[in-house]
Model the fold of this input.
Amino acid sequence: MKFESQPSYSLGQRTPASREAAAGESGGNVTLVSQAALGAINRGRVLQALYDNGPKSRADLARLAGVNRTTITGIVQPMIEDQLLVEGDASPSDVKGGKPARPLYFNHDAPMLGAVLLLPGTIQACLVALTGEIKAVTKAEFDPLGDTEAFIAVMTKTLTATLSEAQQAPFGIGVASAGMIDSDNGTILTVNLAPVLTGLPLVAILQERFSLPVVIDHHPRALLVGDRWFGPGRGQQNFAAVYTGEVLGGAFFIDGKVYRGLAGSGGELGHSVVQIDGALCNCGKHGCWETVAALPWLRKEAARMGLPHPKSITCARLVKEADEGSNAADELLDRYTRNVAFGIVNLQQTLSLNSYVLHGDVAGGGVRAAELIRQHVEQLVVKRPGQEISITVNGIGEGHTALRGAAGLVLSSHLKLVI
Amino acid sequence: MKFESQPSYSLGQRTPASREAAAGESGGNVTLVSQAALGAINRGRVLQALYDNGPKSRADLARLAGVNRTTITGIVQPMIEDQLLVEGDASPSDVKGGKPARPLYFNHDAPMLGAVLLLPGTIQACLVALTGEIKAVTKAEFDPLGDTEAFIAVMTKTLTATLSEAQQAPFGIGVASAGMIDSDNGTILTVNLAPVLTGLPLVAILQERFSLPVVIDHHPRALLVGDRWFGPGRGQQNFAAVYTGEVLGGAFFIDGKVYRGLAGSGGELGHSVVQIDGALCNCGKHGCWETVAALPWLRKEAARMGLPHPKSITCARLVKEADEGSNAADELLDRYTRNVAFGIVNLQQTLSLNSYVLHGDVAGGGVRAAELIRQHVEQLVVKRPGQEISITVNGIGEGHTALRGAAGLVLSSHLKLVI
DNA sequence: ATAAGTTTGTGCGAAGTACAAACTAACTGC
DNA sequence: GCAGTTAGTTTGTACTTCGCACAAACTTAT
Done:
């Protein structure tokens, strides 16, 4: 399947990319900003402002960005003509009269985003509208120990099925994958439990088959992006997403952009050390955060304390049983949330992002777990005047956030907000 | 003392600042890039390329930045006319003939940078040339428990003495200070051992007295900037500076810019937790990194192990005694460097910067200490294919790096490399 | 010695961008 | 009906980068 049509205005995908490539070839470490790139950057920022703040008039956007109204007109007019944006009905003027503003927002029928969630053994693909709605979900399974060609066949078939439901060419395809991902080079390095994926240059493969921009990143980073574009991180310039479950992970949104680290390796928090010479971790080291704040620890402690059905214990059940009056559950919940808090404390001491969105098991514990973690973090962090730490839970289902995040990866790279 | 003259080309100080202020007033979180800002940004990047790569011809710079040669000419010509840059002698052409290139570099007589290092009880001020040379060092002492007015008087007098030796108006004044600093608002929050500084809006005070741009940041961040502009971090896009001594601290250079965190509070690594419920820390918490990797721990262990003169033990002496055959020193050195390594490991797992510059006590241990730390980090970190971790020591004296870093703070803010 | 080839650096016009001023459109309040 | 206010557009200006052409300065081959 191939898509040809592209919007008349460049969103900066081509030019800066080729520029960077050129600079890369000559080994340069500086990149000047060209005139054309400038336009793309500003177009991207206007779109992001629309995302972050919801429907806004041209005048509002101009005020928000501190630029001239005419600049905004120049930016949005081609987008309206291309039906990426639509003008809403005139909203009544608020105070002292004046011409009513016409709010702008994304066209419901604008091109969508392809999204793939890749976990050991399963593939989920879908289309995500710019407004966040999910459509055309397709699921498939693959043999984690099988043949590479077989996997590619399943992946292609699944994605083709989903993309064929799009009315127009999607902006691109975003892939969120478990495991260790090299997002710079678009390859999967290793996925525990799915050796078939080891070393797979998935971006190159999909780009070739679908002739669309393709982006890949690891699961926690997709959650982060999902939070940023469509969840509680919307509009924020600094926050972290923290995932807890069988393993621990995190991702950071710093100064308005996704932090990736070299070759996309930042945020592997599970194996930061919180207990020198502590318990043995799966990674072979001792005292990793994962040894005290992941589900295996919780199951072990639940069994030790004699809680019912310790093998299937979750934060959600712990909260429920604590709410029902179980002292043991209450105590374990407190210790669990405290252990989770230590990782967040170290993050806070390091980056001082002040805002954290929880995912995974601990998110199942809802507001109560989040509040407990917040209290522990507050106690364990060195206080600064005027500093407030917020811990929130993403209420939307886990899979949906990851899929939306995969879609958001495309937006982030497409809008090229980084210079 | 007031300075009036300013270079004819803007380096972006005024416009973006006022732009940001305007956007801030209206509560906006996006900022479009203006035409004028674009020029300032590119001018800044050309200058940074000159810093990072040493003297380069226009053609080289154009290749390095991936832009047209004429663009570089347009950027550097006014700077040459303003005597910020100078054209060197024609260097002999290297291979196939052609017109010999004229390398450009900073004019030795260009405006300098004012730098202040503020530690409890002492002030150091100096001028730093764009080439890194330090001139007109002035030192003074103040009463850490004394009167605010008295401190300001000493500070003003010291700085006036230094600045009066400048031939032209410096580009600005950079202040590196111990303690907790709010670099966004330019105030000192708290300094242990110097209560007189608590809450002092030093930037506003100095800006008013000297009519120059003033920047303040905390000590580790000044070391980072010193490394970046004039030390082992030169030309690097990602690295961290780590300070060990009576306390621990760090600062990060991420994707080509100094990371500050909200209100400049990132990098307070000393109180990240590496030992849940471990030893009591000065901060009132338990198991902070500072409890196992700072000098108080080293002194305590040296005493426990019966090493000579444990109260004045340093990493430098430990290395010397270990080199001379002391098994106890060797063993303690290994444990000390391992404990230091844990903090770097957590940083690496979080941000994956791959490159660390050591300062403070552990830097006194030279290459041997750095290599030991590197080995421990390699062992304790989760390996990624193709990932190399570098640990280096800044050979230049501590004070000089901090002063150069304070100067570099001005450059960083003046060049406005961030958009 | 001469010619050819190569590289550097500089005018000049074109294209693209944001901005300011002045304008029209649309609504409120008196 | 008219003044006041706000939204959005038109028009002209200033600034920046880019591509092309060209002179200057050097090397190499004949």
The CA atoms of residues 280 and 291 of chain A lie 7 Å apart. Residues 327-351 of chain A form the longest helix (25 residues).
